[in-house]
Amino acid sequence: MKLREPMPSLEGATTVLNGEVNREVLIGDKPTLIHFWSVSCHLCKEAMPSINQFRDDYKDKLNVVAVHMPRSEADLDLSDIQKVAEEHGITQPILVDNQHSITDSFQNQYVPAYYVFDKSGVLRHFQAGGSGMQMLTKRVNRVLDEAAQQAE
């Protein structure tokens, strides 16, 4: 996926945890952070407190959606996904992508991976890997500032 491209479809989740969400609801509402993670990903678990902090600190200004991307057969177990989500405080909607439908529509190959979309659903930032939370924070804040200016 390239910068400035529109948000791809979020259709195809095999299960949705913590409430329904779709592309149409997200676009036009407020900026959105979509993060890909996996139960077998140590870096994902390390980053989760930061993502949860985003969710909590910006709950009125930012949509946060998790996509669980399995990396192996062992990652397909729904009870494991639910257990890890609970252990790590993931209360935002989780799209369980056991058939890689969403992963493919994003052309995503990484966990953790972060996609920041502006209010109109245009990709403004992408990053992958465990480090770089400061950069992600900076990019999210920039998109939030733009959204606030547009609202004035």
Concise overview:
The chain has helices spanning about 25, 40-55, 80-85, 100-105, 135-150, and strands at about 15, 30-35, 65-70, 95, 115, 125-130.
Radius of gyration: 14 Å
The rough form would be described as globular
Please indicate the count of domains.
1
CATH class: Alpha Beta
Strand content: 15-25%
Mean pLDDT score: 94
Largest sheet: 6 strands, mixed
Describe the strand arrangement of the main beta sheet, using strand numbers: 1-4-3-2-5-6
Number of helices: 5
Note the run of SSEs as H and E. EHEHEHEHEEH
Q: Kindly name the structural category.
A: alpha/beta
CATH superfamily caption = Glutaredoxin
Determine the oligomeric state from the structure.
single chain
The separation of the N and C termini measures: 31 Å
Written description of the protein model:
β5 and β6 form a beta hairpin. With 152 residues, this protein is α/β, with parallel strands linked by helices. It contains five helices and six strands. Strands 1-4-3-2-5-6 form a six-stranded mixed β-sheet, with helices on one face. The protein has a single domain (15-151), classed as Glutaredoxin, CATH 3.40.30. The radius of gyration is 14 Å and the shape is globular.
Topology:
Blueprint: E1 15-17, H1 23-26, E2 32-37, H2 42-57, E3 63-68, H3 78-87, E4 94-96, H4 101-105, E5 113-117, E6 123-128, H5 133-151
Parallel strand pairs: 2-3, 3-4
Antiparallel strand pairs: 1-4, 2-5, 5-6
